[in-house]
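Example record used in the benchmark description.
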Amino acid sequence: MKCIMVATDGSESACRAIDYAALQAKESGAGLLIVNIIGGYGLPGKLLEQFTGAQHAWLKEMLAALSSTTLSEARDRASRVSPTAIRLESREGDVAATLLEIAHERHAELLIVGKRGSGRAAGLLLGSISQKLVSLAPIPVTVVP
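Model output (structure tokens):
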């Protein structure tokens, strides 16, 4: 295996996914790609449309900074478990679709996600993002409880 991808939103569940992914990367010798999707914070699009240009720019900067912090913390956490190469990526968009897009582009062979993220609770057993990924991904998806 060459590339393991793990998604994080900074939640407890995502932290467990980071730990598991780092261990899998260490055991397989794979590189680790840690991804955060800006847009997964439960902000409705209609709300964003009401912002002025300055407010919208400020919010985008704030979300980008939050994403950068989330990824840095995830990298630090993963590097305590695994000395493998760790890459970070942040993008905007629909969370599930963007994760699948990145997995395809980066040739990820395994996608690891937490059972439930920090967004709105949408699923009974799994979060809505993990449900979508399990259903739609063309690669194996591991959902960490």
